[in-house]
Specification:
about 350 residues; mainly alpha; two-stranded antiparallel ribbon; about 75% helix; about 5% strand; globular
């Protein structure tokens, strides 16, 4: 490249070549959650040493529990994060999580459908729920927060009605016993505390990274979330972008639900009422640096945000703390993360 050509490149080119590694790291959007989670793990290590083994965080059993739980939350968080980058919310992911898995389990065991078809139907169910949310939001003009709250209550009621209505003749909780090959592929233990869920999380996260950072759709998501009117002005089909984001969000929630059902061999419809998964997913992506207003976020931040949320939950359980403390933590961390993200956003703009 000629020197003249280089001079016409944007400032980003010069930054990438002239700045130090430390300066590049400071500008990386997910650096805050990387540092916070890293320091949190160091603190847990110090706690473990100081307690002389009484604090059982770094035991093989506890790490196995975390290794199976974090991917469930993080996969949902990736879908929610992509949607929030696009400028919208989905409060119905817990309902989608349970409903899609319940449908897959019912089709497999009660209807006798082939496993591959039942699995595909479950994912398709989540994708359709996402598309309905997008239609209500983008074509009818209802704010996504309101639309997906409505879908959340509708999904909760529907799955409970299907499970307890005598006319359907279905069990209150759907058992899910796929063949051993399917179970091993989705949730099998690979080595020590490492399970197949981690591989699926890596696959989903990498796909999300490709979408967000290596595909035109990602650029359009950032544009639609940052300034929808300006995006339309340069030819971005904003409604189509948000439709795809909603569908991805629904599909990831459905896939995560099926992973969970495969791990515990059943799906309990009442789980959708008590799980708080939607709040955990939103908290995870906000903590991970995704802007509530849209237009900013990273896949790494979404995953590490989910890991932090589940790790704190795990620590509170180990410490025998009341469950209400975790809900209080979620509220506090969302408020704090919003404040931090707002401050950082203003600094970047200036």
């Amino acid at each position: 490249m000629s020197e003249t050509g280089a001079n016409f490149l944007p400032g980003r080119y010069k930054h990438e070549h002239d700045d130090t590694v430390l300066q590049r790291l400071k500008r990386y959007p997910a650096i805050n959650i990387v540092v916070i989670y890293g320091l949190f793990l160091v603190g847990l290590a110090i706690w473990t040493i100081a307690s002389r083994g009484e604090f059982a965080f770094f035991t093989s059993l506890n790490l196995s529990v975390l290794a199976q739980q974090i991917p469930i939350t993080a996969i949902v968080a990736v879908g929610v994060g992509l949607l929030m980058v696009s400028g919208e919310f989905d409060i119905s992911v817990a309902a989608t999580f349970t409903f899609a898995a319940f449908i897959a389990a019912t089709l497999l065991h009660e209807m006798g459908w082939p496993l591959a078809v039942a699995f595909t139907a479950g994912i398709l169910c989540g994708t359709i729920i996402g598309a309905i949310n997008a239609w209500i939001t983008c074509w009818l003009g209802i704010p996504s927060f309101i639309a997906t709250i409505g879908m959340m209550f509708f999904g909760r009621g529907l799955v409970r009605w299907i499970s307890i209505n005598p006319a359907t003749n279905l069990p209150d909780s759907a058992k899910f016993f796929p063949n051993e090959g399917f179970k091993a592929a989705l949730t099998g233990q690979l080595a020590g505390p490492v399970f197949a869920q981690l591989i699926w999380l890596i696959a989903v996260a990498y796909a999300g990274h490709l979408i967000l950072n290596r595909h035109r759709l990602g650029n359009h998501m950032f544009s639609a979330g940052g300034n929808a009117e300006a995006a339309r002005g340069v030819g971005v089909r904003v409604r189509r972008v948000k439709l795809l984001a909603f569908m991805i969000c629904g599909a990831t929630a459905a896939f995560s639900g099926i992973l969970q059902a495969t791990r515990i061999s059943e799906i309990e419809p009442s789980y959708v009422v008590i799980s708080g998964l939607e709040l955990k997913a939103i908290a995870a992506v906000v903590v991970g640096g995704v802007a509530l207003a849209g237009g900013r976020g990273t896949i790494l931040g979404m995953v590490l945000g989910a890991a932090l949320i589940d790790t704190v939950d795990n620590v509170l359980v180990l410490a025998s703390a009341p469950e209400i403390l975790f809900k209080g933590f979620l509220g506090a961390i969302i408020i704090l993360a919003v404040i931090v993200n707002s401050v950082l956003g203003r600094r970047q703009e200036s």
